[in-house]
Amino acid sequence: DQAAFRKKFHDSPILRAKRVGLLRSAAIALGNHPSASGDVPAGLASLCGVLQDKEPVIRGAAAWALGQWHYRMPEIAPTIVDALKARLAEEYDETVRQEIFSVLGHKE
After folding, report:
1. Longest C-alpha distance within the chain, in Å?
2. I want to staple 51 with a disulfide (CB 3.0 to 4.6 A). Which of 38, 84, 87, 105 is the partner?
3. Which residues have a Cβ under 8 Å from the Cβ of 56 and sit 6 or more positions away?
4. What is the rounded end-to-end Cα distance, in angstroms, of the chain?
5. What pLDDT does residue 42 have?
6. Residue 66: CB partners within 8 Å, gap ≥ 6?
7. Is residue 1 situated within a structural domain?
8. Burial of 54 by CB count in 10 Å (0-12 exposed, 13-18 middle, 19+ buried)?
9. CA-based nearest residue to 27, from 48, 9, 5
10. Number of domains in the chain
11. How far is CA 80 from CA 4, 18, 19, 66, 85, in A?
């Protein structure tokens, strides 16, 4: 959340980046380089967690990143599909829904 983010990085130049932009960029970086996290289970849990973020741009970036992992690491594809289907059941933002559909392979 915003308060925890500010507390953790209060003396850091990272505060110049706004929370939304930072999380979006982090999701995209993880999507582009899945092994960069060094810990696939933790990276997967993080991306699945931000699927619940209040900001659609963050949820969309997480869905896109999970799609990249889905294609590159088929051994975790079932977990990704389950997470995206669960998000889709609640998702109201059309852009995020389309990102999820692109991973799941169908259109609304």
Report:
1. 45
2. 87
3. 93, 95, 96
4. 31
5. 85
6. 31, 44, 47, 48, 51, 80, 83, 84, 103
7. no
8. exposed
9. 48
10. 1
11. 27, 27, 24, 6, 9
- Using the 8-state DSSP alphabet, how is residue 18 labeled? -
Inside any domain, residue 9: no
Query: Is residue 26, in this structure, part of any structural domain at all?
Result: no
pTM: 0.81
Is 27 domain-assigned?
Answer: no
Residue closest to 57 by CA, chosen among 94, 101, 105, 17:
94
- What are 11-39's pLDDT values in tens digits? 776 666 688 888 999 999 999 887 665 67
Burial of 30 (0-12, 13-18, 19+ CB in 10 A): buried
Amino acid present at 19: R
- CATH number, domain of 67, equals 1.25.10
Rounded CA gap, 39 and 87, in Å? Answer: 23
